[in-house]
Structure formats: structure tokens, C-alpha cells
């Protein structure tokens, strides 16, 4: 970030940037904790995630207020304006990631104390780890100003889609094998879909971060291999 003649302008931009990093850290911890709570039937941990969502919302409100005030007071141009507008957009996606993590946590009690099959636990955990890696990487690349790495990271959402399809098929199998699994597996299906949606929000963040750095928009089309609708149609 290029320094400005007015030091306070730099400080205001840095504060907005710091809020983005804080929201990213919180979104990652909420996603990790909600998945851990789901697989371990940990209602106390799930409640903590639900409570953390209020903190996430407060951070987004603070960022929006600071960004709007900065635009009104400083009237930034070119890269500075992109940075501020991009921060507002990224904050919105990070807040949605927090909402999706909260949604997972709120289903922990509904899934109940019944043991999740070992293979399915592994599949969901694998998907969660992939999503967490993406959440962490997108902000790391943004902070390091590595535009080309953001392009690669955006395209890797395809791997999360493939894993989601695998989890979806496993859940259908468990439900068909034993109708008593239907309620728990339906909740797990929604949780897996929330993880897949978190991956989508990461790609949005990557696109906005790339625009902030380069002033160019990435192509609208991106890899998308969610085959679950095809699975439903053929079963």
C-alpha cells in the first residue's frame, strides 16, 4: 500500500485492513469449531460458535461505518477507492461465512448423540479442512498482495465441490440403507452444503481481492462441479 501525505489517511486504511484480517481469523475459527462440535456432538462448543456470530456482525458494522466515513472524508481515488470498496465486499462474504458456521453449530443438537459413521465423519472432516485451508489462504494471499495466487486459489474451489458431491452420495447411501438414519443424515447434508457455500464465499473474496490489487475483474465463469442435482436425478 502506497503511503499518503496525510498520515491519518494511512492509519484509517490500515484499520479497515486490520478489521478484514480479524474477521477472517474469526470466520476460520468459527468454521473449525462448528465442524468439531458437529462431529463430536459438543453442544457447549456449538453454543460458543453461535455467540461468536454476534462478534462477527459487530466487526462488519464497524468496518462498514469506517469505510463509509473514509470515503466521505477522504474521497479516495483509484487503488485507494478499490481497497475500501473491496474491503466492504470482502467483509460481507466473511460475515456470511460466520452465518454459515453458525448454521452448522445450530444443527449439532438436532443431529443428536447418535454416532456418526466413521467413514462419514472422515469425509465431512476432510471437506471442512479443505474449506479452512481456503479461508486462511485467501486472506494470506490478500495480505501478501499475491494476485496470481488468488487466481489459483479461486479455481481450487472445484476440489471442495467434488468432496461435497462425495459426501452427498455417502449420506444418500446411509439413508437408503436404514430409514432411521434419515433425520440425522438430512441435518448432516445441510451442514455439508453450508461448508460448500463457505467455499463459494472464499472464491468471492479472492475475486474482490484480485480486483483491489490489479484493477481487473476475473472472468465470471469459474469451475463449478457440484454434481448433487445430477445424483438426485439419476437415483
Rg calc: 19 Å
Unreliable residue stretches = 230-235
Give the CA-based shape: elongated
CATH architecture: Up-down Bundle
- The third-level CATH topology is Methane Monooxygenase Hydroxylase, Chain G, domain 1
What is the count of β-strands?
A: 0
Helix content: over 70%
Mean pLDDT: 87
Can you describe what's shown?
With 235 residues, this protein is an all-alpha fold. The protein has one domain: Up-down Bundle (Methane Monooxygenase Hydroxylase, Chain G, domain 1). It is 83% helix and 0% strand. It has helices spanning 7-40, 43-74, 78-106, 108-111, 118-144, 147-155, 157-177, 182-214, 228-234. 37% of the residues are buried. Residues 230-235 have low confidence and may be disordered.
